[in-house]
Amino acid sequence: MPTPSIGVNDGLRRVFFFLVAGGTGFALYLVISYTLHYFFHVGEVISVVAGTLLPILPTFWMQRELTFRSNESHSRSFPRYFALQVCNAGFIAMLTALGKFVGLPAVIVFPLCGLIGAVISYYVQARLIFFAN
């Protein structure tokens, strides 16, 4: 069920809810990535891939219902969202490997790569995934 507008410009509402939904997804990404890497000693690349892919269901729901208020069917939008997140995980993994190669610590690489991925993700979601509203 779409969230009713609060009487503000739709673009501002969308940015606000993207920050809420994306911020939640980003927080989950960081918690998962840091936990796997620092507590379970999993490598950086595997940690960021898991951190990107594990929160797919809650972030899909928040982006679809809150940010984009899309009426696109789940059966059409979820596979596209899933594919985006798989590509995003690969991209973030490559950036993380590059950061590790140049000697940056994971505490810096994880949020930096996640933020780059989040910005790209917003534009792809707006144009290719949740465009039917």
From TrEMBL:
Residue ranges of every copy of the GtrA/DPMS transmembrane domain listed in the record: 18-130
UniProt cross-references to Pfam families, sorted A to Z: GtrA_DPMS_TM (PF04138)
Entry keyword set: Membrane, Transmembrane, Transmembrane helix
Membrane topology category: Multi-pass membrane protein
Subcellular location, record wording: Membrane
Transmembrane intervals: 12-32, 38-61, 104-124
InterPro entries documented for this protein: GtrA_DPMS_TM
Organism: Dyella flava
Name this protein carries in UniProt: GtrA family protein
